[in-house]
Design brief:
Blueprint lengths: L7 H4 L6 H11 L5 H16 L4 H14 L9 H43 L4 H10 L8 E7 L9 H14 L5 E5 L2 E7 L3 H14 L4 E4 L8 H19 L5 E3 L5 H6 L2 H12 L10 H12 L4 H8 L3 H15 L6 H16 L8
Parallel strand pairs: 4-5
Antiparallel strand pairs: 1-3, 1-4, 2-3
Helix pairs in contact: 2-5, 3-5, 4-5, 7-8, 11-15, 12-13, 12-15, 13-14
């Protein structure tokens, strides 16, 4: 009983000239000419672009080889099979080349969409239409999480692939988009599915070997992704400037900092008027500023502050007294504490005293 390979009817146009090449090449045992190989590659590319499967295409060529097996012209099984192998190899090469080109085009289109989505550079209506192709419905609210690691990441790196595999394994296709941008991992999810971003944060923290993840607030509409993404980036920037070492940062918990820096000049005046006198300290203002940072960071617990600074309790008491003497504000007095702590935060946000106010 004869064996049927693939859909020979659909494959027939891509067998053009094959019988002639098979007969000519196998009669003398010669290799296929460059022109013959190029014709097979071109047909392979066209077949891939038409959506034909490579398995069906190869099967059709095997069937054609049997059907048009050369006889009586000096051909031997070895020369026939050698000619057939060269033809099919060239066909597969053209097919794979077309597939690689299609993949590159798809990657370029996806990257362009990601850039437009995160920077809001495209018409919002058109952006929403393109988003549906990637499973996002921008008419609803979305939230964005951004993870930074010790090294920059690209889409093809193992870390993004591992995190994406974990997300899909846990949640399936739930309108989640995972990508990379500027070396960071980015996860976009519906705003009412906080468990997705929380799980992403956990997986990204582990995969990046202790990186840091920031989660923006859910924001509505096509422009909401941009706003949530910017909130996450700002949270990472604040963490860097304020030495916040929490593995997961939520923009909703850090809203006080943008408020404090909204009026930069007012904050600069507060820092200068409150902490400026520390310049008169021996060794400059930085040691005393570090003391205040540690003191407020421990909730004003002296023993823990001294331990963090590797100071004796007596040395810490001296430093706090020195701050009081220079600034007129007592860090241990609740009535002075808020002004001092706000000024310390402002100094770190403005990079004072490293940079002039």
């Amino acid at each position: 009983m004869a064996t049927t390979y693939g859909n020979t009817t659909a494959c027939e146009p891509y067998l053009a000239g094959y019988a002639r090449i098979l007969a000519d090449a196998s009669a003398t045992g010669r290799r296929l000419t460059r022109e013959e190989l190029d014709s097979r590659r071109a047909l392979g590319e066209r077949a891939a672009e038409a959506g034909l499967g490579l398995r069906a295409l190869v099967g059709a060529h095997l069937a054609a080889t049997r059907r048009h097996w050369p006889t009586g012209n000096g051909s031997t099984p070895d020369t026939v099979l050698a000619a057939a192998a060269q033809a099919v190899d060239a066909l597969a090469e053209g097919y794979e080349r077309a597939q690689r080109h299609a993949v590159r085009q798809e990657e370029a289109a996806r990257r362009e969409f990601i850039d437009d989505l995160l920077y809001g550079r495209s018409d919002l209506g058109r952006l929403a239409e393109r988003a549906e192709r990637y499973g996002l419905r921008l008419s609803s609210a979305h939230a964005v999480a951004v993870a930074s690691g010790r090294t920059p990441y690209d889409d093809g790196d193992p870390v993004p692939r591992d995190v994406e595999r974990s997300l899909i394994g846990r949640f399936g296709d739930r309108s989640i988009l995972l990508t990379t941008k500027d070396g960071r991992l980015v996860c976009i999810a519906p705003g009412d599915q906080d468990e997705v971003l929380s799980y992403f944060a956990k997986q990204a923290y582990a995969a990046t070997d202790g990186g840091q993840v920031a989660i923006g607030r859910p924001q509505p509409g096509p422009a909401g992704v941009v706003h949530s993404y910017e909130e996450a980036l700002n949270a990472l920037d604040l963490a860097d400037r304020l030495d916040l070492d929490a593995p997961v940062l939520r923009a909703a918990d850090l809203l006080v900092y943008p408020v404090l820096t909204r009026d930069r000049q007012a904050m600069a005046d507060l820092v200068e008027n409150t902490l400026g006198p520390l310049r008169a300290a021996r060794g400059g203002p930085q040691p005393l500023l570090d003391t205040l940072t540690a003191y407020f960071g421990t909730g004003c617990v002296s023993a823990e502050t001294a331990r963090r600074l590797s100071l004796s309790p007596r040395a810490l008491t001296y430093r706090l007294a020195r701050i009081h003497a220079l600034t007129g504000a007592d860090p241990t007095d609740p009535t002075h504490r808020y002004t001092l702590q706000t000024a310390v935060i402002g100094a770190r946000l403005l990079d004072w005293p490293t940079k002039p106010l």
